[in-house]
Write a sequence for this structure.
């Protein structure tokens, strides 16, 4: 089994995805007589002693195709369908680079029983939104087609199976369709190319010169994509899309025997053929050492990576191997925890560092030490990281360090076991993917916990250090790679000399201290409940305490052992003013200052093994803290929230971290078209209102926690609070816990302050076009039109605009992507504000080649003008409406959906009315209603155009 584990997973660029698939046609029958099937592939659990969890059904058809089924009802009444082809870009020959991904696109473009252009439309008519519910992805080793069915009725499931059957062997791959799709794929390749991707390409070329995988990026080679024709695509299709190379997964509210029978009926006549041989990712020269690479890009902050290559290990999934892996992972995590502590210090030597070992496909392994330094400080960063790594590998770990990691592991295992019965369909699909991709047997969370507890006494500093030393390479005479904005002084010899010097230094063990107990457990006399009622339609319980704190509770059975929380505190971005536009800019960094009695780093250690979190963000008109905890840890989570309000740390290390990160943001903000446009848009739309305009870098550097305290301190002490708890919550017990924490605080303001003067936001009256310059790729442009609309006070108008948004997206996709082939993923978005009075925006955007800006501008004008002039076609209206209705039908099948209603069920009870009435409004909207909305808001002359082009381009038409 080929395992996907590349050099530094966290450092990879975004996956190359093609957002699409298909859905509803009669199944096709093969005319040819089925050939004998090759030997069936073996399931990974066949040779493992890890027990497979009950509930999965594994099947293999006579032609070699395999399937995995599982009945599951979360979200209730929904189904996930996946078709996995075990070939990706590594399968491509030299003249086929990009054909696996190209072929994935062709799955939309006609099959034996579905005409070209109809597949997406069929999906939309069934309530599946293009991109959100229907997509596909091409990787190095697999191509996967995905359908997220909003309903589990047998007819829809059967249609999904029919479409997957069409994809498997019935694609038309017509020459004219190939020619039309070529522009879309070239547009996707253009959009995906940026500084991060180019950096990865350089890294892989350095690590594995001459290997296959760096030359098989899934997006492909431009020369191949331009020359690809139907014959070459069909040759790849017939070679890779064979039953023995395919696995079909169906998880959800299904009748397993019925679905198994349907699969056999639909796929039995798929002609058997030998699967393609497993392609090689190499060669990889494991003997390489002592080489250095320097890569410069203005968008990259300094990073030094130290690497040694070692042979790949075939380590099948067994109980013994899992124990070894656990010891290794605890060791790596303990080292990285030390790095985290160092990076959080006020005088931190680096921004962050990491240590790990992973497989490079099945051709080798790489042990990496990676450090992100401050510009010009690479040597300081490298030396500090290397010293601490050497201490860990030489002297090992303290009991407290290992106990912290064991506690985290135990908590994760316990939480998973307690929540096992309410795992989502997506969680089961992920487990199946791990089995297919990495050979990991899908065992039950309870059995995993039992094995962990049996093995836990064996997890000691000594066993962890031994496992870590056995797994990691020695890093003697390593490969060293530098990336940054400017080359290091002294070049490659200086990098090598610095490494050699720090490796030769004498070492002394450092003292490690144990964390103290959490210091916040008494907030005064528990608060009394003064109001307690239940909203009859939703069952949301609404409680108010004598001190003014409001609590909203919704008990659900959707996630066992999980309680979601959201705290809203009066204030938010409304506290910013024209004279002090950055008043709340540091809010999200406040938790980095810890609490008065504990630093952030101390909190991480003393709360290890507890499912709690500390965060704060400045929302529009409230400060918000949110996350998830467990019933057992709810008391601690509430204590943490109360402590954050009453005794924030305001430590210097948080200030320092903020200044370093904001400095890096300014150096990178214009590196892509979207980044450059996004940083300028607020200024443009608001005529330079300082509240919505990026300020000079010096203004951010001048910020401090003392200034933040002056703005936010009163809100922390006195501002109105509304807390929502949703999930596996004992309501009465939760009320008592809130009473002894937040409810015990001194009296607070009873209501969120209206701040009407602060809610004024204007939209520019100018319609002059704006040109924004970016420093990214020379052929990338981003064209965006923005119209002023209105706020969200009128529910009917909100729904009209939302439906209009979906219609515009459909029309733009068909015009710019399908008909013209100029853009990969044009967008539309309606944003009526709940904060700013009479303010909202409607935006359309398209990323195109610089030379195609005039054509894109004309397409935006044509689409919006047509919507203004005439009612939209009935079919387009329904294709936009149906997924929107399904989204409302499924909204309360998750705790996230319930939280949206519960978060401010007392301060904004009308939100419940709006939600409950939204579906009926959408159902009642007509094409005339949509046209009226378009005519009111989307006249082409009423838009503000912003165009982002390369800094080398003065004008793009």
């Amino acid at each position: 089994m080929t395992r996907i584990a590349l050099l530094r997973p966290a450092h990879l660029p975004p996956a190359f995805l093609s957002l699409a698939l298909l859905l509803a046609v009669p199944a096709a029958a093969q005319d040819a007589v089925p050939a004998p099937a090759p030997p069936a592939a073996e399931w990974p659990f066949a040779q493992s002693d890890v027990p497979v969890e009950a509930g999965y059904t594994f099947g293999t058809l006579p032609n070699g195709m395999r399937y995995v089924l599982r009945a599951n009802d979360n979200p209730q009444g929904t189904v996930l369908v996946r078709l996995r082809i075990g070939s990706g870009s590594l399968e491509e020959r030299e003249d086929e680079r990009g054909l696996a991904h190209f072929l994935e696109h062709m799955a939309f473009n006609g099959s034996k029983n579905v005409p070209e252009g109809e597949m997406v439309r069929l999906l939309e008519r069934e309530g599946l939104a293009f991109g959100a519910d229907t997509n596909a992805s091409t990787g190095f080793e697999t191509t996967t087609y995905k359908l997220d069915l909003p309903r589990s009725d047998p007819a829809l499931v059967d249609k999904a199976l029919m479409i997957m059957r069409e994809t498997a062997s019935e694609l038309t791959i017509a020459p004219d369709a190939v020619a039309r799709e070529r522009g879309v794929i070239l547009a996707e390749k253009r959009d995906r190319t940026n500084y991060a991707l180019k950096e990865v390409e350089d890294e892989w070329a350095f690590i594995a010169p001459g290997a296959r995988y760096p030359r098989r990026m899934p997006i492909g080679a431009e020369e191949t994509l331009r020359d690809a024709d139907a014959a070459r695509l069909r040759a790849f299709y017939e070679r890779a899309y064979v039953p023995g190379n395919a696995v079909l997964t169906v998880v959800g509210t299904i009748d397993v025997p019925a679905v198994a029978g349907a699969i056999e009926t639909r796929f039995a006549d798929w002609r058997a053929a030998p699967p393609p041989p497993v392609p090689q990712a190499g060669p990889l020269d494991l003997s390489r050492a002592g080489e250095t690479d320097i890569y410069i890009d203005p968008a990259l902050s300094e990073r030094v990576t130290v690497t040694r290559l070692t042979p790949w290990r075939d380590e099948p999934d067994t109980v013994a191997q899992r124990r070894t892996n656990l010891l290794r992972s605890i060791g790596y995590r303990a080292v990285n925890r030390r790095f985290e502590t160092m990076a959080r210090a006020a005088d931190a030597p680096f921004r962050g560092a990491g240590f790990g070992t992973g497989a490079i496909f099945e051709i080798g392994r790489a042990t990496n030490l990676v450090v992100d330094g401050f510009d010009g400080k690479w040597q300081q960063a490298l030396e500090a990281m290397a010293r601490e790594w050497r201490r860990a590998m030489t002297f090992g770990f303290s009991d407290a360090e290992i106990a912290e990691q064991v506690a985290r592991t135990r908590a994760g295992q316990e939480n998973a076991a307690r929540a096992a019965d309410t795992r989502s369909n997506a969680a089961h699909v992920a487990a199946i993917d791990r089995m297919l991709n990495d050979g990991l047997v899908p065992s039950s969370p309870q059995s995993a916990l039992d094995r962990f507890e049996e093995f836990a006494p064996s997890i000691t500093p000594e066993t962890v250090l031994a496992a870590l030393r056995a797994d990691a390479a020695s890093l003697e005479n390593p490969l060293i790679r530098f990336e940054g904005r400017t080359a290091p002084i002294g070049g490659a010899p200086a990098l090598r000399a610095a490494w050699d010097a720090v490796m030769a230094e004498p070492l002394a063990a450092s003292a490690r201290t144990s964390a103290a107990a959490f210091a916040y457990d008494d907030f005064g006399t528990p608060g009394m409940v003064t109001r307690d009622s239940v909203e009859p339609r939703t069952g949301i319980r609404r409680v108010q305490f004598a001190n003014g704190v409001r609590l909203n509770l919704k008990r659900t059975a959707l996630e066992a052992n999980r309680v979601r929380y959201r705290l809203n505190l009066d204030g938010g971005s409304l506290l910013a003013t024209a004279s002090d536009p950055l008043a709340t800019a540091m809010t999200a960094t406040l938790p980095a200052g810890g609490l008065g009695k504990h630093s952030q780093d101390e909190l991480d250690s003393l709360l290890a093994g507890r499912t709690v979190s500390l965060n704060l963000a400045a929302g529009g008109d409230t400060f918000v803290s949110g996350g998830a905890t467990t019933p057992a840890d709810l008391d601690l989570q509430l204590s943490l929230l109360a402590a954050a309000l009453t005794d924030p740390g305001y430590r210097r290390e948080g200030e320092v971290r903020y200044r370093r990160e904001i400095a890096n943001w300014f150096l990178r903000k214009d590196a892509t078209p979207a980044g450059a446009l996004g940083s300028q848009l607020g200024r443009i739309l608001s005529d330079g209102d300082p509240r919505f305009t990026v300020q000079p870098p010096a203004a951010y550097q001048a910020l401090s926690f003392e200034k933040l305290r002056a703005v936010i301190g009163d809100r922390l002490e006195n501002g109105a609070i509304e807390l929502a708890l949703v999930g596996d919550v004992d309501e009465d017990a939760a009320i008592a816990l809130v009473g002894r924490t937040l409810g015990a605080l001194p009296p607070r303001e009873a209501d969120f302050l209206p701040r009407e003067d602060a809610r004024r936001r204007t939209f520019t009256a100018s319609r002059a076009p704006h040109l924004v310059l970016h420093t990214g790729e020379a052929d990338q442009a981003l064209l965006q039109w923005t119209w002023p609309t209105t706020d969200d006070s009128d529910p009917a108008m909100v729904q009209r605009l939302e439906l209009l948004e979906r219609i515009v997206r459909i029309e733009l996709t068909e015009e710019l992507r399908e008909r013209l082939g100029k853009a990969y993923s044009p967008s539309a978005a309606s944003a009526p504000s709940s904060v700013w009075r009479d303010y909202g925006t409607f935006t359309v955007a398209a990323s195109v080649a610089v030379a195609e800006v005039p054509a894109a501008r004309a397409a935006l004008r044509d689409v919006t003008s047509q919507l203004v002039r005439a009612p939209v076609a009935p079919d387009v209206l329904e294709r936009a409406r149906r997924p929107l209705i399904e989204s409302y039908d499924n909204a309360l099948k998750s705790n996230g959906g319930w939280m949206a209603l519960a978060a401010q069920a007392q301060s904004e009870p009308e939100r419940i009315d709006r939600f409950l009435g939204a579906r009926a409004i959408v159902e009642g909207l007509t094409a005339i209603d949509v046209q009226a909305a378009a005519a009111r808001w989307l006249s082409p002359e009423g838009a503000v155009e912003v165009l982002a082009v390369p800094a080398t381009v003065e004008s793009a038409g």
In short: The chain is about 40% helix and 15% strand. Confidence is low (pLDDT under 50) at residues 1-35. The longest helix spans residues 319-343. The two ends are 53 Å apart (CA to CA).
